[in-house]
Amino acid sequence: MILDKLIASTKKRVAEAKEKKSPAELIRELDRKVLEPPRFKDALTGFDGVSVIAEIKKASPSKGLIRPDFDHMKIAEEYSNCGIQAMSVLTEPEYFKGELRFVSEITKNIDIPVLRKDFTVDEYMIYEAKLAGADAILLIMAALTDDEYRGFYRTAKELGLDVLTETHNETEVKRALEYAEIIGVNNRDLSTFEEDIRTCERVLPLIPDDRVKIAESAVRTHGDYEYLSSLSYDAALIGEAFMRRDDLRAAVNELRYGDKIS
Fold it and tell me: Which residues are the active-site residues?
């Protein structure tokens, strides 16, 4: 399964990073840094409607190269003029062609909350995310044991990071509820990579009303956006549908308003 390959690749990457800079060195850097409070959750809940988390992604395991003319700063600057609430920045290098520096460069120049999107398998990655200026990290229930999830969640909150907890089915939603304030429902089956936007509706009864609900994957059209609104989802995370468009403002407007605004 591709998730297993991603986890193995990420563990190898973290081991190599630790050889260059130890966890103790990262912690010392954090001790010298003023840790700003996270803004991700507040940005999503402060919008009247389904918030948009626009993703910066060059490639994916299932689709290969998505945006040949990829320039993370240009994309981030364009997004900043589109009325989005947050950005999701891929930092996984092997399959998604991401880099951690994308987060640090974007957060230094653009005042929009940023989610570091990666396959968090070690506390080291949480330290990296905070040092890079991220407001939130991703924890994927399918990739973690309950003990790992609890430990990573606590570390993130201690550092002042919001946590998007990603789930794919009813079992994972139930596992997440002990801690998760922000629950993502990925409409993509990670074993087959098939998408079904109705996954959002199927697991919805299990998610308490006081949690922030985010739909991930399979959100491409204004009809999809209205569907999420009818389910009272708080936000939608959209990557490929935007990354394949030349005009990002038009893409965001069409998602929100359909043909009412070009």
Answer: 55, 57, 117, 166, 186, 216-217
